[in-house]
Amino acid sequence: MTDWLRRFHPADDAEARLVCLPHAGGSANYFFPVSRALANRLDVLCVQYPGRQDRRREPCISTIEEMADRVAEELTPWADRPLAFFGHSMGAIVAFEAALRLEAAGITPAVLFLSGRRSPSTFRLETNHLLPDKELVQELRGMQGTDASLLDDQDIVDMILPSLRSDYKAVETYDNRTAGAVSCPIVVCNGDKDPMVTAAEAAAWEKHTTGGFDLRTFRGGHFYLNDHAAALIALIAQKVKTVVPAAA
Questions:
Q1: Half-sphere exposure (CA, 13 Å, Cβ side) for 32?
Q2: In 24-132, which residue ranges form alpha helices assigned H by DSSP?
Q3: Nearest Cα to 111, choosing from 159, 56, 51, 183?
Q4: 62 assigned to active site
Q5: Which molecular-function annotations from GO does this UniProt entry contain (predicted)?
């Protein structure tokens, strides 16, 4: 494996691979339970961005474009089988942009699952990456995706702040309102109480695919997926099973 990819439960006989891309401030380990649950059906590759955990000494990447460039490059050797993507929040944008790059290189993904992120055509001006440290941590608390007890530990906060701020900068300075469309299906998943994504902003992803569109709404906020993991895993497994024969 490369520094960019974690393969927690190798599935050498799987018909397809699932690439999981975490949210801002997140790491590959967030998707360990997904990898474990799908190990007998899909070969799960979890992306580890630089600047966190075992890559914390590496410089962070502060643009979506560079992240997508690197992810697409790292995935190319793994495209011997159909690639499906699941990206949450920032990971959804990186997944989409990486898919565009792979398609330009002749590699068409099987399906994109894009979670907790509005479409590129629905731009919002945001500047959370410019907040003082204390206020940025409060913003993170409000998303309810990180154990609050961890955010009470100053050593942990000091460790995660650089990558968190860099990720927020990447997301908030990303502006591709004229983004094209992928040719694979897009499945958008969203929480009905997510302050980061309205129903209309989620539905606008339909403009960015010529291969079919499906919108799934769950109860919850930005990290609705923590409460609906089983349903999401079942959805991923069923959809990939449906599209992989055509993709292959």
A1: 4
A2: 32-38, 64-75, 90-104
A3: 183
A4: no
A5: hydrolase activity
- H or E stretch covering 20: strand 17-21
The one catalytic residue in 88, 129, 208, 222 is 222
Is 178 exposed, middle or buried, given 0-12, 13-18 or 19+ CB atoms closer than 10 A?
exposed
Q: From the CB of residue 170, how many other CB atoms can be counted at a distance below 10 Å?
A: 23
What Rg, from alpha-carbon coordinates, does the chain have? 17
Amino acid found at 8: F
pLDDT digit string, tens, across residues 62-84: 999 999 999 999 999 999 999 99
Q: Which residues pair with 217 in a beta bridge?
A: 190
Pairwise CA distance, residues 199 & 206, whole Å: 12
CATH of the domain at 52: 3.40.50.1820
pLDDT in tens, 150-160: 666 677 777 78
Element (H, E) at 111: strand 111-115
Query: Among this protein's residues, is 89 annotated catalytic?
Result: yes
CA-closest candidate to residue 233, choices 203, 196, 189, 199: 189
Q: How many domains does the chain have?
A: 1
Domain encompassing residue 112:
5-247
CA distances from 127 to 67, 131, 166 (A): 20, 7, 12
Q: Residue 147 burial (CB < 10 Å; 0-12/13-18/19+)?
A: exposed
Return the structure tokens found at 180.
């094209």
pTM for the model stands at 0.93
For 212, left (φ over 0), alpha (ψ -120 to 50), or beta?
left
Average pLDDT, the chain: 91
Q: Check 27, 35, 62, 89 and give the catalytic one.
A: 89
